[in-house]
Predict the 3D structure of the following.
Amino acid sequence: MERISNQTITDATIRLDDYEFIDCEFVNCNLEYSGGFFILNGVRKVNCRYVFLGPAHNTVAFLQAIGLLNSDVVR
């Protein structure tokens, strides 16, 4: 797992899987998650969007289908 700390990342697509982010700030970013392990510790997110891919996307679709997650959560 790669560790990234004390960074401000702006206008980027960030893959969360297999990363540890410590005391970082994400501004106007797409945060991609595919179902793997990750750590966010002391992270600040400003105007960011979550993008679910692969198995994570399937899980979100399942939760929406059974009414446990609002459909407006994921675009």
About this structure: The longest helix spans residues 54-65. Residues 2-65 form one domain. Residues 17 and 38 are 5 Å apart (CA to CA). The beta strands are 2-5, 8-10, 13-15, 19-22, 25-27, 30-33, 39-41, 44-46, 49-52.
